[in-house]
Amino acid sequence: MVKILVKMYKIAVFVSGRGSNLKAILDRLSQFESTAEVVCVISDKIECSAFKIVESKNIPTYTVSQNDEKGFISYAKILLLLEDLDIDLIVLAGYLKKIPNILIEKFEKKIINIHPALLPAFGGKGMYGLNVHKAVFDKSVQVSGATIHFVDKVYDNGKIIAQKSIDISDVDSPEQIAERVLEIEHQLLPEVVLKFSENKVVEKNNRIYLLN
Ligand code: GAR
């Protein structure tokens, strides 16, 4: 009998909140005949709601902080863990803390983030979650959307990998924008994660392309 060994594409997901994007990734990977798998979930919060999503899935969770302290593991140790696990891609799916440089340097072009607006507008420090949608609403912006980009040392600054827009000209509240954008996020993020796992994200002409 010939055994075919398939190398799994290993993903670590960082979360801070409810984890709907994490769920979207897991759902998509399970529907699709994919060699990609989420092998750990990391949060900055001890009782992160997103952890509940992986409770029954045998996916380990870790809580990270700058230093080792009760209930937390330092970023330095998380880095060792991610290296040990041979992680191919780190996905920030609603992770609201800044990723320290030690991780960014080790995982250059291997960390991606989803942002709930069309970067480079409405990004930067303090621009997360509903803050983004409030700013978009207050400016009377008519189109918003989701952006997936590489993470570098500056907030929301890395090269853009994918974007999807949506008409928000008729909305009454920032919450309504959040709802519409989230729907897009749940399509776009799993799509991009799959492209990475299939080696279909390439850099050419100083731009990023997703191959068919
Ligand atoms: C998402 O809307 C994501 O784009 C946003 O946090 C939310 C997390 O939702 N991220 C940022 O604002 C990062 N700057 P989720 O926990 O349900 O996936």
Globular, elongated, flat, extended or rod-shaped: what is the shape? globular
The number of helices is: 6
Task: Please report the total strand number as a whole number.
Answer: 10
Helix-residue proportion:
25-40%
Q: Please report which band the strand proportion falls in: under 5%, 5-15%, 15-25%, 25-35%, 35-45% or over 45%.
A: 25-35%
Using the CA coordinates, give the radius of gyration: 17 Å
Helix/strand-derived category reads alpha/beta
The neighbouring-strand order within the major sheet is 4-3-2-1-5-6-7-8
CATH superfamily membership, which one?
Formyl transferase, N-terminal domain
List SSEs in N-to-C order: EHEHEEHEHEHEEHEE
Biggest pleated-sheet summary: 8 strands, mixed
Q: State the end-to-end distance.
A: 34 Å
Instruction: List unreliable stretches of 5+ residues.
Output: none
Bound molecules: glycinamide ribonucleotide
CATH class: Alpha Beta
Per CATH, what is the topology? Rossmann fold
Mean pLDDT: 96
Could you please describe the fold and organization of this structure?
With 212 residues, the chain is an alpha/beta fold. The chain has one domain: 3-Layer(aba) Sandwich (Rossmann fold). It contains six helices and ten strands; from the N terminus they run E-H-E-H-E-E-H-E-H-E-H-E-E-H-E-E. The chain has helices at residues 20-31, 50-54, 75-84, 101-106, 129-138, 174-197; strands at 9-15, 36-43, 61-65, 73-74, 89-92, 111-115, 143-150, 160-167, 201-204, 207-210. The strands form two sheets. An eight-stranded mixed sheet has the order 4-3-2-1-5-6-7-8, with helices on both faces. It has a two-stranded antiparallel ribbon with strand order 9-10. Helix 4 (101-106) links the parallel strand 5 (89-92) and strand 6. Helix 1 runs parallel beside helix 6 (174-197) and helix 5 (129-138) crosses helix 6. The two termini are 34 Å apart. The protein binds glycinamide ribonucleotide.
